[in-house]
């Protein structure tokens, strides 16, 4: 957790870190990914058979290699809005027998050439590159739009069944004798939204989710079930209502937020602070629901699954046109603030999934010649690689922005305004401390007194010439640099930059 004091007249900016004060564990699932049948995320993204850049299974090798750098712990699939008309059984078995279907979320045609078995095989390839020997976990979203409970139970049986039963045997017939052991299952996606096929009221959804949860656990009691929430801000009563009815039968509660303001850098970079308020409010709603429903303390905490988050401007990158954002340095700063939020609020976060993994509002873009790492790739890489272990106590004294925000309500929730220096800190199992400082200012470097920092410091910095620069094929205008610092004296955090300082704790 990071506390903040607005800089007074004549004061020098100050950041104090106390790595001895471990506040809450950072769940490794915080750095999850998301792949949806949308635009070029699957076809032409992770799956590109026939391309010289793909392996014998059709998986884009450059994408696999890049994602292995991130050590992604979990990937959500197959949607997203797509899932509301997706029938998983049409995407397994011989490919020449799989039907093509109209796709209603993004107004395309789904070939079903990539389905459950291909997704699991792709995760196996990703997992092969993990140094810790763990696998990349699958996280499947159930169709609660046009889908049925029987269909959901069949999918769980296909993935996890070990007995002599129909769908478990069908998986074996399809060449996969061992169960996939899929642990994480979402009870639908954004069912509250008017854009959804089979949109539901909160009353109808809560009743249906509770019944599905009961049946799914009878089939497989080890499932981790994720309830479909809204945005956590309390803008409607959805989150409060469905939690109050279902908190006792689920393990996590999903919320989604996208932020953007392409026309104003400061609004864009500070917008993720709205997600911080949403996390705090959702955490309170979860506590309230557990109290009201007398959920015993022996039941593990109900966590937040922030399974769609990112910077996305649907006007700039329309979803039905593939949502291929060209991310700027300003967007990279916003992503770093997003990740700072997750670290600061780690006590509540059980999983988070950036939307999406490749091509679609993504830090990675593919082309016939290879991949481009967009501006937003670099903060994601730094956090996923180094911000592990525990959130530690940190205090910031700095100037603050007190102008208009996006959303408008955000500024009214910030007691001292939005700090120009957005900060989080962690310590890992080996005692390495990581401090991330995002200098949001477009114009001013910030010279800061640092307390609690070691004397042999590695400094990583992400920046560029101005907040509007982007990375394109063959031209990296936003990049990562590394240098050493002796930890003595003041440190200058450059304007419009992301800086990570790392040192060995005492």
Automatic annotation (TrEMBL):
Keyword Hydrolase: yes
Family: Belongs to the glycosyl hydrolase 51 family.
UniProt keyword list: Carbohydrate metabolism, Glycosidase, Hydrolase
Protein source organism: Apiospora aurea
Tagged with keyword Amino-acid biosynthesis: no
EC class of the enzyme, as a word: hydrolase
Transmembrane feature ranges: none
Highest taxon of the lineage: Eukaryota
Gene3D superfamilies per record: Glycosidases, Golgi alpha-mannosidase II
Function noted in UniProt: Alpha-L-arabinofuranosidase involved in the degradation of arabinoxylan, a major component of plant hemicellulose. Acts only on small linear 1,5-alpha-linked L-arabinofuranosyl oligosaccharides.
Pathway(s) where this gene product acts: Glycan metabolism; L-arabinan degradation
EC number annotated for this UniProt entry: 3.2.1.55
Pfam families per the UniProt record, alphabetical: Alpha-L-AF_C, ASD1_dom
UniProt-recorded name of the protein: non-reducing end alpha-L-arabinofuranosidase
Occurrences of domain Alpha-L-arabinofuranosidase C-terminal (ranges): 307-497
Catalytic reaction list: Hydrolysis of terminal non-reducing alpha-L-arabinofuranoside residues in alpha-L-arabinosides
InterPro entries to which the protein is assigned, alphabetical: Alpha-L-AF_C, ASD1_cat, GH, Glyco_hydro_b
């Amino acid at each position: 957790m990071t506390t903040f004091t607005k800089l007074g007249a004549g004061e020098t900016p100050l950041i104090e870190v106390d790595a001895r004060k471990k506040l809450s564990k950072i769940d490794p699932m915080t750095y999850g990914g998301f792949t949806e049948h949308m635009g070029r995320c699957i076809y032409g993204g992770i799956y590109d058979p026939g391309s010289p850049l793909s392996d014998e299974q059709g998986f884009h090798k450059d994408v696999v290699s890049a994602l292995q750098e991130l050590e992604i712990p979990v990937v959500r699939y197959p949607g997203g809005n797509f899932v509301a008309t997706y029938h998983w059984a049409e995407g397994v078995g011989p490919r020449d027998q799989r039907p093509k279907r109209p796709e209603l979320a993004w107004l395309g045609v789904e070939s079903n050439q990539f389905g459950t078995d291909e997704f699991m095989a792709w995760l196996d390839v990703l997992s092969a590159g993990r140094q810790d020997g763990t696998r990349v976990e699958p996280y499947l979203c159930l169709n609660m739009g046009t889908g049925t409970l029987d269909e959901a139970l069949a999918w769980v049986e296909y993935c996890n069944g070990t007995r002599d039963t129909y769908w478990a045997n069908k998986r074996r017939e399809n060449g996969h004798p061992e169960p996939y052991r899929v642990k994480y299952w979402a009870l639908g996606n954004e069912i509250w939204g008017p854009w959804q096929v089979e949109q539901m009221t909160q009353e109808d959804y809560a009743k249906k989710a509770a019944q599905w949860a009961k049946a799914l656990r009878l089939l497989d009691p080890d499932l981790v079930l994720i309830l479909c929430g809204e945005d956590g801000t309390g803008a409607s009563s959805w989150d409060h209502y469905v939690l109050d009815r279902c908190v006792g039968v689920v393990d996590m509660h999903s919320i989604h937020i996208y932020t953007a303001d392409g026309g104003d850098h400061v609004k864009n970079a500070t917008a993720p602070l709205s997600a911080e308020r949403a996390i705090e409010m959702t955490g309170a709603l979860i506590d309230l629901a557990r109290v009201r429903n007398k959920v015993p303390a022996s039941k593990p905490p109900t966590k937040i699954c922030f399974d769609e988050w990112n910077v996305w401007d649907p006007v700039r990158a329309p979803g039905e046109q593939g949502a291929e954002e060209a991310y700027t340095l300003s967007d990279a700063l916003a992503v770093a603030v997003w990740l700072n939020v997750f670290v600061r609020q780690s006590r509540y976060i059980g999983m988070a999934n950036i939307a999406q993994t490749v091509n679609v509002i993504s830090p990675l873009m593919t082309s016939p010649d290879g991949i481009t790492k967009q501006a937003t790739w670099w903060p994601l890489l730094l956090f996923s690689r180094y911000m592990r272990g525990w959130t530690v106590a940190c205090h910031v004294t700095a100037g603050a922005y007190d102008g208009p925000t996006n959303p408008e309500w955000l500024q009214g929730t910030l007691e001292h305004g939005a700090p120009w220096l957005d900060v989080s800190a962690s310590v890992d199992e080996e005692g390495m401390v990581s401090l991330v400082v995002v200098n949001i200012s477009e114009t001013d470097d910030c010279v800061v007194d640092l307390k609690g920092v070691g004397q042999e410091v590695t400094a990583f910095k992400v920046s560029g010439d101005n907040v509007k620069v982007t990375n394109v094929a063959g031209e990296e205008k936003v990049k990562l640099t590394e240098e050493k610092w002796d930890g003595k004296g003041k440190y200058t955090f450059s304007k419009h930059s992301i800086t990570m300082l790392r040192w060995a704790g005492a």
